[in-house]
Write a structure and sequence with these properties.
The chain has 6 helices and 13 strands. The chain is of the alpha/beta class. The chain has a single domain, classed as 3-Layer(aba) Sandwich (Rossmann fold), CATH 3.40.50. A 9-stranded mixed sheet has the order 1-2-13-12-3-4-8-5-9. Bound molecules: S-adenosylmethionine (SAM).
Length: 248
């Protein structure tokens, strides 16, 4: 086990020197604009992208959520930095699903559904009770571990049962992220999340012995992410009884 400290946040705007790849990037939360930061990552150097971008829902507290322009701008950069034969994995809005396939350099692979029995997101048909995670591919990557494509969880309350309240508008359940990472990545792989928010992808990576690179534009979310990581890695024992089940 290793303990990360607050120094793992690098502030791209305040740093007096240029960020160096890979030493300033791996297992770091970098405060800055992902569209700038990703340009510092060399071509074909990332094993998988796992992300949860702003996708046009105008969610309060999420920068860049007015439209899909951020997503469209980061897509070609993600393609560039990903190794050949790798996966690009992203949560996306059901409302704007057709737009996911426009201007998209990746090939569609599969969809994985997170069923949320307590979900109460308004939709034209009443309440939506699922969210989707889309798997795209660059080249012909192999699935590492076969699993199912529907999981169940209770996101939307900004609470992780083993951590308590997460002070971010849209934290995603790390148990679900871990299930997906186990399917599409291997130990020691390097996973990029350009929109890391409260750090769920980083925690999932560290708990599964994957390396991560996380970008986040809001400083307060960077601190939340690092606090979560420190708490988990410093020996904080999740309550097994309360741990979320992702079985359906
Ligand atoms: C949907 S949230 C991600 C939540 C994350 N999956 C979690 O579990 O906490 C999207 C995040 O992208 C960040 N963001 C928006 N524009 C950004 C940009 N240009 N560069 C980096 N991060 C950005 C937002 O501040 C927000 O925290």
């Amino acid at each position: 086990m290793f303990i990360l400290s607050m120094e793992m946040i690098l502030d791209a705007n305040k740093l007096e020197r240029k960020l160096k790849y890979p030493e300033d990037f791996i297992n770091k939360i970098i405060h800055g604009d992902c569209l700038e930061l990703i340009k510092l990552i060399p071509d074909n150097s990332i094993d998988a992208v796992f992300t949860d971008p702003p996708y046009g829902l105008n969610k309060e507290g999420i920068t860049g959520d007015a439209d899909l322009s951020l997503f469209y701008n980061i897509l070609p950069e993600c393609y560039r930095v990903l190794k050949d034969n790798s996966f690009f994995i992203t949560f996306f809005s059901t409302k704007f699903l057709p737009q996911l396939f426009k201007n998209n350099p990746f090939n569609y692979f599969w969809q994985i559904v997170l069923f949320c029995p307590e979900g109460k997101v308004k939709s034209p048909i009443g309440y939506t009770k699922f969210m989707s995670c889309f798997i795209f591919k660059k080249g012909s990557p192999k699935v590492i571990r076969r699993n199912k494509d529907i999981f169940v969880d209770t996101p939307g309350k900004m609470v992780e049962p083993d951590e308590g309240y997460i002070d971010h508008p849209t934290p995603k359940p790390k148990h679900f992220i871990k299930e997906i990472l186990k399917m599409f990545t291997q130990e020691n792989d390097l996973i990029l999340d350009p929109f890391i928010g409260s750090g769920s992808t980083a925690i999932a990576c560290l708990q599964l012995n994957r390396r991560f690179i996380g970008f986040e534009i809001e400083e307060k979310y960077c601190y939340i992410a690092v606090n979560r990581i420190n708490k988990i890695l410093s020996g904080f024992k999740p309550n097994k009884i309360n741990e979320k089940k992702t079985e359906l």
